[in-house]
Amino acid sequence: MRELTYYIGVTLDGFIAGPDDEVDFYPLTPAFEETLGTELADIQPTHVRAGRGGADAPVTRFDTVIMGRRTYEPALQHGITDPYAQLRTLVCSTTLADPSEPNVEIVRTDPIRRVQELKAEDGLGIYLAGGAGLAGVLLDEIDRLIVKKYPVIAGDGIPMTRHGFAPALFALEEVRSFDNGCVVLSYSRP
């Protein structure tokens, strides 16, 4: 069965972005970007893959991405209707117009059921790109977490997930630290 992996960057106080979706405060270094860009090349946006010379490289870990409307909209604002052309793309939204892209599916009904259907299919992993609301809805379906914990306190912003009180236990598998002070934590369901 395919797994759903939530790969996300967070501040020390648990925010994925500022109150107005800011993410430009995360400290990045070339070494950090190179390492994660190489290891997780499948989930780099198409223009990033092209810039790294891997636009036509086959995917090896993920073949599907699922995201909420707010995660998808920044690409649309730049005229990009298929930001992950190397992946099958699902956008969960009841209000978004269909972008008429053969590789992009708008999920208008139950995202939990749709993810369960995806998991039952043959294929590689499923990448949950965000956001907080969708991650909260799909929390019970998330099999793995890859959390980039940045050495920043934001004070306010968008949390990693939005849901009612419902503790969910994950088992730590790996911890790696990088030159920018970021720690990448990998977890799985126990």
Please tell me about this protein's structure.
GO terms for molecular function: 5-amino-6-(5-phosphoribosylamino)uracil reductase activity. The chain is 22% helix and 28% strand. It is of the alpha/beta class and 190 residues long. The chain has a domain of 112 residues: Dihydrofolate Reductase, subunit A, CATH 3.40.430. The strands form two sheets. Strands 5-4-3-6-1-7-10-9 form an eight-stranded mixed beta sheet. A two-stranded antiparallel ribbon has the order 2-8. It is globular, with a radius of gyration of 16 Å. It starts with a strand and ends with a strand. The model has no long low-confidence stretch (mean pLDDT 95).
Q: Kindly state the percentage of residues in helix.
A: 10-25%
CATH superfamily of the domain at 63-174: Dihydrofolate Reductase, subunit A
Instruction: Give the N-to-C terminal Cα separation.
Output: 16 Å
Kindly report the spatial arrangement of strands forming the biggest sheet: 5-4-3-6-1-7-10-9
At the first level of CATH, what is the class of the domain at 63-174? Alpha Beta
Major sheet size, sense and barrel closure: 8 strands, mixed
GO molecular function, one term: 5-amino-6-(5-phosphoribosylamino)uracil reductase activity
Domain Bacterial bifunctional deaminase-reductase C-terminal: 7-183
Protein name: Dihydrofolate reductase
Pfam families: RibD_C
